[in-house]
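Notebook B, p. 112. Complex prediction, attempt 2.
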Amino acid sequence: MYWKETMRQMNDIGIGSLVIVGLIAIFIGAVTAVQFADQLSGGLIPRYYIGYIVRDITIIELAPTITCLVLAGKVGSNMASEIGGMRQKEHIDAMELMGVNTAAYLILPKLIAAVTIIPLLVSLAAITSIVGGYIASVPFGVLTDPEYVRGVRSFFEPNYVLMMYVKAMVFAFILTTVSCYQGYYVKGGSIELGEASTQAVVYSDILILVADLAVAVALTG
Amino acid sequence: MIRTENIYKSFGETEVLKGITTTFEQGKTNVIIGKSGAGKTVLLKLLVGLFQPTSGNVWYNDINFNKLDKKELRALRMEVGMLFQGNALFDSLTVQQNVMFPLDMFTKMTKKEKLARVNYCLERVTLEGSNDKYPSEISGGMQKRVGIARSIVLKPKYLFCDEPNSGLDPKTSIIIDKLIHDITVENDITTVINTHDMNSVMEIGDTIVLLNLGKVAWQGTKEEVLESTNETLQDFIFASPFLQKLRKSALGG
């Protein structure tokens, strides 16, 4: 039962978020490349640095943080509404009477799915973002193909990939637990359910940003 | 038999139940009636352990329900079936999966045995052949019957129904009432129904408890209802102007 529910959640979170995550990532990479190209146009800094900057800023910060902020809105509000709706329609009461540990049954599969799938989505976002930087710069003559590739391959720091995965897992944990909590303890009617859904997103976003700083300090200190 | 002993329940500063002492008898359809906000649903949820009383006890025969540990509570819950007001059917599961859910949770029956039991229950509520439909694909009355099938699938000794007729037309209500009553008598179970539908009360209620402002305002049998001079009971039963007229003409007024 838990396995089936976990698979369903993985599908909802992963496949269901592919398009939005991919789109956002490609534009973030593109905008980063274009803006840095403009800022580094003085000639003092080599052009290939644009590829290097896009890669690092994407891996360290933009891919995990922006992806998870977006997922807090998409997946988090959905989790809060789904569980809150079950609370209001007495599904949770019915499950408790049928001997189900409702907190475990409703939250654990979501948590396992999110902590597994969101890092994969973040990896995808990082790769797509770097490709986005290429698309926005090379075809338009901002820099050449060898320059961008050289930049992407320069000064690679494997620890930054570790940092990306740590952030992704921490943010996934935050957005799932906060959203499920808001839904699980919802009281009242549709207005309260809407409020719970909004609070799930707002609190998740705030905590993700705080955790972002905490992880950055912890892993770079 | 279920007995409540001086039950109090508060939510924050609001005291919803104020010293409820009553008995629900085995093999009978015990009905809790009262206006909206009288505390009927809270009492029902207290009886099944979804709420804990602020003080007082619920007794299932000689077992104090509020003193059970987790294991004992699980064992007792196997003997409890509940029909929720909104049916509480799981939208993502088919009719068959919904009815099978308690068997999956509580028993180690083989799939074949479970299916046989599910089919028997669906047949009992005249829903044979609806196994693969989803709750959204069937009518309100059918959903109610699926809820009943799910609540009796474990052969419960105690059946609780929260407003079983809410949202149903009078004809379907009678079918549902009769079904609950027949299941109660056939299986000699203790059934507790929470309703404000007087047709149901007079049709299937063996014992009746009237709640008013969180207290037991009256209790007795169906036959005693009509003879009672209890003002709260009379106000509740004859709330509609039509019934008041009927009563006046019956009394020769």
